[in-house]
Protein backbone atom coordinates (compact mmCIF):
# COMPACT_ATOMS: atom_id res chain seq x y z
CA UNK A 1 0.00 0.00 0.00
CA UNK A 2 2.77 2.44 0.94
CA UNK A 3 4.67 1.60 -2.25
CA UNK A 4 1.52 2.22 -4.31
CA UNK A 5 1.06 5.65 -2.72
CA UNK A 6 4.70 6.58 -3.35
CA UNK A 7 4.40 5.48 -6.98
CA UNK A 8 1.12 7.39 -7.41
CA UNK A 9 2.71 10.53 -5.98
CA UNK A 10 5.72 10.21 -8.28
CA UNK A 11 3.52 9.71 -11.32
CA UNK A 12 1.38 12.71 -10.41
CA UNK A 13 4.35 15.11 -10.13
CA UNK A 14 4.75 17.56 -13.00
CA UNK A 15 7.70 16.84 -15.32
CA UNK A 16 10.96 18.58 -14.45
CA UNK A 17 14.38 18.87 -16.00
CA UNK A 18 15.67 19.75 -19.48
CA UNK A 19 13.23 17.47 -21.31
CA UNK A 20 10.15 18.72 -19.45
CA UNK A 21 9.58 21.58 -21.89
CA UNK A 22 9.28 19.02 -24.68
CA UNK A 23 6.79 16.82 -22.81
CA UNK A 24 9.22 13.89 -22.76
CA UNK A 25 10.30 13.77 -19.13
CA UNK A 26 9.82 10.27 -17.71
CA UNK A 27 8.27 9.23 -21.04
CA UNK A 28 4.89 10.65 -20.03
CA UNK A 29 2.60 11.62 -22.90
CA UNK A 30 0.68 14.88 -22.96
CA UNK A 31 -2.55 12.99 -22.25
CA UNK A 32 -1.16 11.44 -19.12
CA UNK A 33 -0.13 14.80 -17.65
CA UNK A 34 -3.70 16.05 -17.93
CA UNK A 35 -4.86 13.29 -15.54
CA UNK A 36 -3.81 12.75 -11.93
CA UNK A 37 -4.79 10.63 -8.94
CA UNK A 38 -5.94 12.56 -5.88
CA UNK A 39 -3.74 11.68 -2.90
CA UNK A 40 -5.72 13.18 0.01
CA UNK A 41 -8.04 16.01 0.99
CA UNK A 42 -5.42 18.73 0.84
CA UNK A 43 -4.25 17.48 -2.58
CA UNK A 44 -7.88 17.68 -3.76
CA UNK A 45 -8.16 21.22 -2.38
CA UNK A 46 -4.91 22.32 -4.06
CA UNK A 47 -5.30 20.63 -7.44
CA UNK A 48 -9.08 20.57 -7.94
CA UNK A 49 -10.86 23.22 -5.85
CA UNK A 50 -8.10 25.82 -6.33
CA UNK A 51 -7.38 24.93 -9.98
CA UNK A 52 -7.25 27.78 -12.47
CA UNK A 53 -8.46 25.34 -15.15
CA UNK A 54 -11.75 23.48 -15.27
CA UNK A 55 -11.48 20.01 -13.69
CA UNK A 56 -13.28 16.77 -14.46
CA UNK A 57 -13.43 14.67 -11.28
CA UNK A 58 -13.85 10.92 -11.83
CA UNK A 59 -15.08 9.19 -8.66
CA UNK A 60 -14.42 5.49 -9.24
CA UNK A 61 -13.57 2.19 -7.51
CA UNK A 62 -11.20 -0.66 -8.40
CA UNK A 63 -14.04 -3.20 -8.19
CA UNK A 64 -16.38 -1.22 -10.48
CA UNK A 65 -16.72 -2.68 -13.97
CA UNK A 66 -18.34 0.39 -15.57
CA UNK A 67 -15.55 2.55 -14.06
CA UNK A 68 -12.96 0.47 -15.92
CA UNK A 69 -14.77 1.26 -19.17
CA UNK A 70 -15.46 4.95 -18.53
CA UNK A 71 -12.06 5.90 -17.02
CA UNK A 72 -9.87 5.33 -20.10
CA UNK A 73 -12.56 6.74 -22.40
CA UNK A 74 -12.78 9.91 -20.30
CA UNK A 75 -8.97 10.24 -20.06
CA UNK A 76 -8.73 10.05 -23.86
CA UNK A 77 -11.37 12.74 -24.29
CA UNK A 78 -9.70 15.03 -21.72
CA UNK A 79 -6.33 14.59 -23.47
CA UNK A 80 -7.94 15.71 -26.75
CA UNK A 81 -8.80 19.05 -25.11
CA UNK A 82 -5.06 19.92 -25.21
CA UNK A 83 -4.70 21.34 -21.70
CA UNK A 84 -7.95 23.30 -21.53
CA UNK A 85 -9.19 20.94 -18.79
CA UNK A 86 -7.58 18.49 -16.36
CA UNK A 87 -8.91 15.28 -14.87
CA UNK A 88 -8.70 14.20 -11.23
CA UNK A 89 -9.30 10.55 -10.36
CA UNK A 90 -10.69 9.84 -6.89
CA UNK A 91 -10.90 6.24 -5.62
CA UNK A 92 -13.93 6.22 -3.33
CA UNK A 93 -12.51 3.38 -1.22
CA UNK A 94 -9.37 5.42 -0.47
CA UNK A 95 -11.16 8.77 -0.15
CA UNK A 96 -14.54 8.06 1.39
CA UNK A 97 -14.62 11.53 2.95
CA UNK A 98 -14.48 13.21 -0.48
CA UNK A 99 -17.16 10.86 -1.84
CA UNK A 100 -19.44 11.77 1.07
CA UNK A 101 -18.68 15.50 0.78
CA UNK A 102 -19.59 15.50 -2.92
CA UNK A 103 -22.64 13.25 -2.40
CA UNK A 104 -21.36 10.36 -4.51
CA UNK A 105 -23.84 7.52 -4.05
CA UNK A 106 -22.88 5.40 -7.08
CA UNK A 107 -19.83 4.93 -9.28
CA UNK A 108 -18.76 6.04 -11.72
CA UNK A 109 -19.78 9.58 -10.84
CA UNK A 110 -18.16 12.40 -12.79
CA UNK A 111 -18.21 16.03 -11.67
CA UNK A 112 -17.38 19.08 -13.75
CA UNK A 113 -15.78 21.74 -11.55
CA UNK A 114 -14.95 25.32 -12.34
CA UNK A 115 -13.51 27.81 -9.85
CA UNK A 116 -14.07 25.29 -7.04
CA UNK A 117 -17.79 24.82 -7.78
CA UNK A 118 -19.58 21.80 -9.22
CA UNK A 119 -21.18 23.04 -12.45
CA UNK A 120 -22.29 19.71 -13.94
CA UNK A 121 -22.43 16.01 -13.07
CA UNK A 122 -23.31 12.60 -14.46
CA UNK A 123 -23.49 9.05 -13.13
CA UNK A 124 -22.76 5.95 -15.20
CA UNK A 125 -21.22 5.34 -18.60
CA UNK A 126 -21.44 7.82 -21.46
CA UNK A 127 -20.42 7.38 -25.09
CA UNK A 128 -17.73 9.55 -26.69
CA UNK A 129 -20.23 12.02 -28.19
CA UNK A 130 -21.84 12.58 -24.80
CA UNK A 131 -18.42 12.98 -23.13
CA UNK A 132 -17.36 15.48 -25.77
CA UNK A 133 -20.52 17.53 -25.21
CA UNK A 134 -19.96 17.36 -21.42
CA UNK A 135 -16.37 18.63 -21.81
CA UNK A 136 -17.26 21.36 -24.31
CA UNK A 137 -19.96 22.66 -21.95
CA UNK A 138 -17.40 22.74 -19.11
CA UNK A 139 -14.74 24.49 -21.18
CA UNK A 140 -17.25 26.88 -22.69
CA UNK A 141 -16.42 25.92 -26.28
UniProtKB/TrEMBL annotation:
A Pfam family matched in the record: Thioredoxin
Alphabetized UniProt keyword annotations: Disulfide bond, Electron transport, Redox-active center, Transport
PANTHER family in the record: THIOREDOXIN, MITOCHONDRIAL
Protein name (database record): Thioredoxin, mitochondrial
Superkingdom of the source species: Eukaryota
An example Gene Ontology CC term for this record: mitochondrion
NCBIfam families found in the cross-reference section: thioredoxin
BP terms from Gene Ontology: cell redox homeostasis
Coiled-coil intervals, chain numbering: none
Domain called Thioredoxin: residue spans: 24-140
Lineage: Eukaryota, Metazoa, Chordata, Craniata, Vertebrata
GO MF entries: protein-disulfide reductase activity
Source organism: Climacteris rufus
Family, as annotated: Belongs to the thioredoxin family.
Amino acid sequence: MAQRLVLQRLLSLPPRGPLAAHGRAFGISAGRRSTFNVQDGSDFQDRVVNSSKPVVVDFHAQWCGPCKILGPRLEKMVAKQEGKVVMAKVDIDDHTDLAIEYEVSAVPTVLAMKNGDVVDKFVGIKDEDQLEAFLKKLIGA
